[in-house]
Amino acid sequence: MIYLDYAATSIKREEILREIFDNKEAFDGNPASTHASGRRAKAILESSRESIADSIGADPSRVIFTSGASESNNTVLASFRGSKLITSNIEHDSILNTVDKENTIFLKADKDGMISLEDLKEALSEDVKLVSLMYVNNEVGSIQRVKEIGEFLEDKDLHFHIDAVQAYGHIDIDVEKIKCDSLSLSGHKIGGLNGFGILYLRDDLGAFIRGGEQEKDRRAGTSYTMGAYSMARAFEKTKAERAKIKEVKEYFIERLKKTGIDFEVNGKLENASDHILNLYFPAFRSDFLLTYLDMHGVCASAGSACRAGSLEPSKTIMSMYDEYRALHSIRFSFGFTNTKEDIDKLIEILEEVKK
Ligand code: PLP
User: Fold this and answer.
1) Ligand 1 centroid to residue 69 C-alpha, Å
2) What is the pTM of this model?
């Protein structure tokens, strides 16, 4: 199998699973228990928190563990329910399907998948209490100018939230430089276990899951020690793999150019994360091409995994271009298992379709 759908979820990392398995007893206890087993698990949980906090330049006390970025995003939106907010029309569904559309201004991404600071300035008014934008787009990989936006918003009386799921591990994130008030991350996109993420919060927004005293009373529920450990370890590994991932993506584009297959890049290559490549193939419908690729052992997607079960064209590509293009585009996303040999095989398969 050639797995090219890392933006949906990463292949899990055997070394990390083995570390957990080999050290299983250390993960067994409930970190809230005061006995030895609980204390061992708590030590892992808190050292993972320190590593994750360090990976985004945050203080560990500001990092809250959650079940993933959907929960983190929903939590921030819930805290501003009833207020006017600004987001973009290319956000993840955990934002787009949660906001109250009546109270929301949607900034429109341009053909490069970029949100303009000028548009944001124009849309801003005193009653806007939340601006929520993604760092790296999950479909086309565009990297937003979050630092510039953060600097502009710094002295405004509002909350600036970043969904940095697709940026994590692939580009450097520093919450102090971005000047954001909150930031969502997920572990499974980089090879951590599914169902674990964080919400970085500069200032508390109150308790969002009530029950036990976990996460300093802010988010109840028995802590997911393995999830935290796997995310912290996966970050270190992903960071070290950046050059390799970039090389694989560039190699794919170079080889594809030589096939004579008609294609265009959705978004702008120079401003995209190295792990995402979204291509428009005017001659092939994406549902046909994806099925063909799947039959030949290649996993890719036509957009966000949350929409993979539906035949709807990607909302992101539609808003950046048009429906025809959305129905003829495919996202390839790369990760640590990918090699140039994978790309050679993929090119062979694509050359077959061309015939
Ligand atoms: N935000 C973005 C940009 C994503 O790509 C995803 C993943 O699908 C999410 C949020 C949701 O993350 P999770 O699967 O951890 O809930």
Assistant:
1) 5
2) 0.96
